[in-house]
Design brief:
five-stranded mixed beta sheet, single chain, globular, Purple Acid Phosphatase, chain A, domain 2, alpha/beta
Length: about 250
């Protein structure tokens, strides 16, 4: 029998988006959910998001923001967004964050990481040195995957959905459940934009060694999430959530 798996990433505390994704997963009768990290970071609803993740038995790995929350979790005053999340979660959530693995292999077929197999802050698929995401060439992609044996690699971090075939494997980024745009200064200033406020995830169907991948894009109450971001002093997040763009 073919096995169907949902792959989610970069929820970023967006409980509104996650609820709609979970409804869609239930309608498809999918029982296995792989979560590629950056689950709670953001000015939204980290505790509500955590409760849904645990209630539905996601297998979760750590993203770079999960790692930062864990590292700074016993202190305050480091970072506006981190401080907000830490005021919303309890010690059990912090222990969960501290225990998340860096990567995971599922069924000997799917290798899961947040960024690349080496670093959780590095993009696997995209080259952002120009300030905008460009697809890496085959040699660059292969350089990250020489030690990876499964035929499918799932990654997140960029918030952009992709299906990329290499000589070694099929690489899938499910896109972001809860944050459709952002900008960052590392390694250079760059912008990641989907152009839509919709929630994104992927569905994989495994039949022996045949893999089918589908990108799922869903409407949800993005305005409710955006208003929460504004209430918590993050107008930039509110704009990202409403538009899927960094700026007009």
């Amino acid at each position: 029998m073919p096995e169907t798996i949902a792959v989610v990433a970069d929820i970023h505390g967006n409980r509104w988006a996650l609820e709609v994704v979970l409804d869609d997963i239930r309608e498809r009768r999918i029982t296995t959910v792989l979560n590629l990290g950056d689950s709670l970071y953001g000015p939204l609803d980290p505790m509500g998001t955590y409760s849904l993740i645990r209630e539905h038995g996601f297998f979760s790995i750590s993203g770079n923001e999960d790692r930062l929350l864990a590292e700074y979790g016993r202190s305050r005053g480091k970072h506006k967004t981190i401080d907000y999340v830490l005021t919303q979660i309890n010690p059990d959530v912090l222990s969960w964050l501290e225990g998340l693995p860096f990567d995971h292999v599922s069924n000997n077929l799917i290798y899961c990481c947040h960024g690349t197999p080496e670093h959780d802050t590095e993009y696997l698929i995209e080259d952002v040195r120009s300030g905008y995401p460009l697809l890496k060439d085959s040699a660059s992609l292969s350089s990250h995957l020489n030690s990876i044996f499964p035929p499918v690699v799932c990654c997140g971090h960029s918030h952009l959905h992709h299906v990329v075939q290499t000589d070694q494997c099929l690489i899938i980024n499910p896109g972001s459940v809860g944050c459709p745009a952002y900008d960052d200064d590392m390694p250079v200033y760059h912008r990641m934009e989907t152009g839509t406020p919709r929630a994104s995830y992927a569905v994989l169907t495994l039949d022996h060694f045949e893999v089918k991948a589908s990108h799922i894009s869903l409407e949800y109450d993005a305005e409710g999430a955006a208003q929460t971001a504004e209430k918590n002093g993050h107008d930039n997040w509110a704009f990202w959530l409403r538009t899927g763009r960094v700026s007009p």
